[in-house]
TrEMBL record:
InterPro entries: MCM, Mcm3, MCM_dom, MCM_lid, MCM_OB, NA-bd_OB-fold, P-loop_NTPase. This is DNA replication licensing factor MCM3. Pfam families: MCM, MCM_lid, MCM_OB. SMART domains: MCM (SM00350). The gene is MCM3. Residues 214-420 form the MCM C-terminal AAA(+) ATPase domain. GO terms for biological process: DNA strand elongation involved in DNA replication; double-strand break repair via break-induced replication; mitotic DNA replication initiation. Its EC number is 3.6.4.12.
Length: 551
């Protein structure tokens, strides 16, 4: 009998499983990080003795059997009184009581499928500064092969402590190994439980979407404490909205996620823009170039320390499936490690063929990366490719590449200084940009606008952090725009013009650039909550792409 639904008030995470939960039915949510291979486990063995020509059988029950400690039942389902199922010795017999050799009749023996999985708490739910907790799952029979690395699952099972380790040795330290004996497995999507829509939110979203300058409003609301970078902020909004992915009948996958790379001088707020995008996205995984390896970003084959069994372990891009991956210090990543993410950025899969394991994992995530120039400061006397120092094969996988320069302009510097000082002056009233909405999720709806006191003009207003997340989630999940005929002709004409231009540009113009325009235009149509991609969406997309290519 399979059990579904939460057990108790809400599903638990591996962090909430304590000794008080032992021998109880629990419901746990998390991300599968390590998945073992499926192995047969003997339930009943049948042996034949050639000397006596007799058959004998033996049943095996270990600590991972869910029926352990229950009353035994007969073939009709009735309980057998005064007989409780206990652990039986796992010694496989080779001789009978008289010392005669036994032969195993494998065709008559009974086996069951057995698999172990490590479930880690979701990255967005892990407390800041603490390592994510994990719990081991034990799956038998028809539950095996339901989960692959990177899947977000909800499992129902019994939390139990085992007196033996994975290799069968008795624990002598008094610290027992704990597992969840799974009864039911359910695959879930990206959790949006932290977003609580009030009755006024949807009407406000639809009213706001009708404004002609909706992208300007959304762009101002991303990192309002950072002055300037208006085009980059708009691009981040479109990245969070994403395009529409397509799976063609011939098996071709066209990604809808938008990849963005920012290259520029130090102290130009690149990392702050990354952090701001992380706080807005429902699912975001952060990493740095120097602290990441190729297998750490994609997937790795590891060996279990107890059983020496090979396992497939998911990396950051697999864990961020349907989310956002932020890679800071992208230029510090090793050459071999950068090659590993080529497939994940375009095909959005991670293929592993190592140690006898061949698997393909989903990595349907958008990549937001920031890098410094090769020479520390951007050298305007050199070509763009010489400053960036990344191969064209990798750059073409980025839809947009922004060169962020620290230009010395007295008027701009004065505006930046006034903006930063104003933020410090009124920080207590306006709140942090990346503040969590946990404390406000059950409060009554407030105004959707946050206003800076030094300038109360309407065209400088920005949306609150909580409402911005709701707007982007609603627009991304409710609308799947399609191209109109006018939009197709406009995109084809502009693409041909870009190919014919010989100007110095940041990215090579390839067929991927054509798909970039389609993705950006589709994301802008989502921002307007429109079911079709029209001419104005294509104009905005071309303006963004032209700024990224030639600015």
């Amino acid at each position: 009998v399979a059990l579904t639904g939460p057990v108790g008030a809400s599903p638990s995470s591996p962090r909430q499983l304590t000794s008080a939960s032992l021998r109880q039915l629990v419901c746990v949510e998390g991300v599968a990080t390590k998945v073992s291979t499926i192995k047969p486990k003997v339930v009943q063995s049948v042996h034949y003795c050639p000397t006596t020509t007799q058959h004998s059988s033996r049943e095996y029950i270990d600590a991972t059997d869910p029926h352990l400690g229950l009353n035994a039942v007969d073939t009709t389902g009735r309980e057998i009184p005064d007989r409780v199922i206990h652990i039986t010795p796992s010694v496989y017999p080779t001789k009978d009581k008289e010392g005669h050799a036994l032969e195993t009749e494998y065709g008559l023996s009974t086996f069951k499928d057995h698999q172990t999985i490590v479930l880690q708490e979701m990255p967005e739910k892990a407390p800041m500064g603490q390592l994510p907790r994990s719990v081991e799952l034990v799956l038998d029979h028809d539950l095996v092969d339901r989960i692959k690395p990177g899947d977000r699952v909800r499992v129902v099972g019994t939390y139990r402590a085992l007196a033996v380790s994975s290799n069968g040795q008795q624990s002598s330290s008094g610290v027992f190994r704990t597992v969840v004996l799974v009864n039911h497995v359910q695959t879930i999507g990206v959790s949006t439980s932290r977003l609580h829509f009030h009755e006024n939110d949807v009407p406000n979203i639809k009213e706001l979407a009708a404004q002609p300058n909706i992208l300007d409003v959304l762009g101002r609301s991303v990192a309002p404490s950072i002055h300037g970078h208006d085009i980059i902020k708009k691009a981040l909004v479109l990245q969070l909205l994403a395009g529409v992915e397509k799976n063609l009948e011939n098996g071709t996958h066209l990604r809808g996620d938008i990849n963005i790379l920012m290259v520029g001088d130090p102290s130009t707020a690149k990392s702050q823009l990354l952090r701001s995008a992380m706080t807005i996205a429902p699912l975001a995984v952060s990493t740095t170039g120097k602290g990441s390896s190729g297998v750490g970003l994609t997937a790795a084959v590891t060996s279990d320390p107890d059983t020496r069994e090979r396992r497939l372990e998911a990396g950051a891009m697999v864990l961020a499936d349907r989310g956002l991956v932020c890679v800071d210090e992208f230029d510090k990543m090793g050459e071999n490690d950068r090659v590993a993410i080529h497939e994940a950025m375009e095909q959005q899969t991670v293929t592993i063929a190592k140690a006898g394991i061949h698997a393909s994992l989903n990595a349907r995530c958008a990549v937001l990366a920031a890098a410094n120039p090769v020479y520390g400061q951007y050298d305007r006397r050199r070509k763009i490719q010489e400053n960036i120092g990344l191969p064209d094969s990798l750059l073409s996988r980025f839809d947009l590449l922004f060169v962020v320069l620290d230009q010395m302009d007295p008027e701009t510097d004065r505006l930046i200084a006034a903006h930063v000082i104003g933020g410090h002056r009124y920080r207590d009233d306006d709140g942090e940009d990346d503040e969590s909405d946990d404390d406000q999720e059950h409060s009554p709806p407030q105004s959707i606008w946050q206003r800076r006191r030094r300038n109360a003009a309407t065209n400088e207003d920005a949306l609150t952090h909580d409402f911005l997340r709701k707007y982007l989630h609603y627009a991304k999940s409710r609308v799947s725009p399609v191209l109109t005929e006018a939009a197709r002709e406009f995109i084809a004409q502009k693409y041909a013009e870009m190919r014919s231009r010989q100007d110095d540009r940041t990215l090579p113009i390839t067929a991927r650039s054509l798909e970039t325009v389609i993705r950006l235009a589709t994301a802008h149509a989502k921002a307007r909550l429109n079911a079709t991609v029209e001419h104005e969406d294509c104009v905005v997309a071309m303006d963004l792409l032209s700024f990224a290519l030639y600015h």
